[in-house]
Amino acid sequence: MNELTLNQFLIVKDIFSFGIACMGAATLFFWLQLSRFSKSYKTAILVTGLVTAIATYHYFRIFNSWDEAFTVKNFKLYTSGIPFDFAYRYIDWILTVPLLVVELILVMKLSPKDTLKKSIKLASLAALMIIFGYIGERSEDQYTRDLWWYIGMLPFLVIVYELFKGLNKSLKLQPLAARPLINTARWLIVITWSFYPIVYHIDLLQISRSSFVVALQIGYTMADILAKAVFGFFIYLIAVKKSGIDA
Amino acid sequence: MNELTLNQFLIVKDIFSFGIACMGAATLFFWLQLSRFSKSYKTAILVTGLVTAIATYHYFRIFNSWDEAFTVKNFKLYTSGIPFDFAYRYIDWILTVPLLVVELILVMKLSPKDTLKKSIKLASLAALMIIFGYIGERSEDQYTRDLWWYIGMLPFLVIVYELFKGLNKSLKLQPLAARPLINTARWLIVITWSFYPIVYHIDLLQISRSSFVVALQIGYTMADILAKAVFGFFIYLIAVKKSGIDA
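Predict the joint structure of the above. Result:
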């Protein structure tokens, strides 16, 4: 990464700081709204804020690790000899990605039995997906990387199937006013989550190594903000609609 | 920036610390008042505090970046070789400036449909304005800088038009007691926001480079405090008047 320019280094640092600000602001927004919800939706909103809170913590770690990986001397950039630890993203996802599907299930307010069953099923699949992706990302060999990508896609496809086929019956039991929002929320999961397996392969585009690093980090951060803060805002809107309170 | 005196360095540092204190205090004031408001105005007050909270975070970043950009040895100031990252301001504005117009719309308590429509329209224009300004500010060439200034002025003028023409009908539906406050709030937006495009051109006044740096940072900080904390206080007063509670 030593061909990175000072400007590229700063842009990525700005983006990570933007991640901290977005995730932190989203958390405060969700939790300060908690008191307005009846007990039926409190847990959903609480978990929504929990996801962005965990992400805020990890964006601090990512920001600091990026800062430590470089030294600036006389307005020139040098690598410091300490590696940038991308694994914080995976540590974040192992916790937050299963919680994201739980958010959606909680706000749908299914029967206690269905809530538990679907939460365990979808959260386990989500955790598996991240673990497989991590194994692939950690490997140095292109063949192993590709192999784990395919293995990680399996739980992802089951999740997509479950979100559309498995939740359809439950969706029909939702109040009419909330249905389009829930539908948008599940599409938001599919579209934003699809971004990660694409970004995993960004090196195939054969752009120069330093632009690759910048593009990768911008891409991940934007996908994270959409998948957690913006998705969380949809969960909030669904809870508002179903509770009949003002946004 | 190496002609900056130690005193000038300290003045700017003081100003940034003043920014942290003002924004932090404003946030605490707004959020500690939250429980006094009925559900109709809670989100408006919450977002008002969110804007100053995001600004508090960024003033910490700006303060630390300024401090890192210089080294003090034997009571003399030297540049450290690490650039001062002005981009934190833009990262802040991309989030806070759209939220500022949302605050005003929320406290007016329009119909849910109008709230959504006007919020999306004005917030998008505000975000565009900041992005155009950032592109101009990042460019080194005077012609490009000027060009993006003109492009950035277009969404700004549309926002001003919308605030005065577009909100006039809604203003007439507001309680009589709240109207002068709402009118002042929108004027506060126009006046404080006008400061930024002027400051963008402060170098045209051909003052010495180090005084320019000091003037620029004082100007930005004061404009930020007026546009966020003082403007937020007006939003609070409007909510107080409309709720019929004591300030």
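The first strand of chain A starts at residue 70 and ends at 73.
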